[in-house]
Amino acid sequence: MKVGFIGLGIMGRPMCKNVLKAGYEVTVFDFNTAAVEDLVSCGAKGAKSGKEVGENCDVLITMLPNSPHVKAALFNENGAAEGLKAGSVVIDMSSINPVESQNIAAKLKEMNIGFLDAPVSGGEPKAIDGTISVMVGGDQELFDKYYDLMKSMAGSVVRTGAVGAGNTTKLANQMIVAVNIAALSEAFVLCEKAGVDPQLVFDAIKGGLAGSTVMNAKAPMMLSRNFEPGFRIELHIKDLQNALDTSHSINVSLPLTAQVMEMMQALKIDGREKKDHSALLNYYEKINNITVGKKD
To answer: What global pTM score does this model have?
Structure first.
């Protein structure tokens, strides 16, 4: 099985390296030539365009910021769809609007090309060690055929329904993560203001009902005041906007998601959109005029 990979960013680069480690033949493309060179040094074949990737693969993986980037990578001039053969498959591991996933799948179907939407969760550390979670939408037959390929990058790979279901699942994930980080930030500010060490609070509660993967990952970043991504606020804004757009299209109200979205927008206005989403703490610090954790 020849694999193509387009999108070698914070997540895509380590994911692609894990595909190589699993023994697959991989052709890669990204506008970041340094990322391409890095993958070539690991055994991949570098391509000059998406079309060239398509010409050299049976299955194409895309890992890009949002739906416009996925559509451009596939359908623009010299895009991958120009090179893909009938009967090949695209696995889009980007996090995009589920309606856009369905639109992309429909367009590829006209070309006799299969499609799975398979967004991921876990952040850069899990992308590096190959333990991300993959949520997949698409036909069971395609899921079964490419399960091993997806599993080479992941700790878990779960099909949640037809095309679009993967990205709907990812939206749910991102909503829960956002609200968790906001609640953690709010609690730490309360503790700091009350004169109780947030580090000791974290140590005391992380093993209880409030404990979570989110807390274990983000509390240490907050307490050490390390807000380098990780997962950028601007990308979480994109995910929450997709969640709100989807909810409005099906008449669902998401008040907590909307509130956290506005907090992240405030951080973006403050020039912090490229910081890790744990920087939600900074929103609470600013409105409460207090600093949590390690002092500069």
So the answer is: 0.89
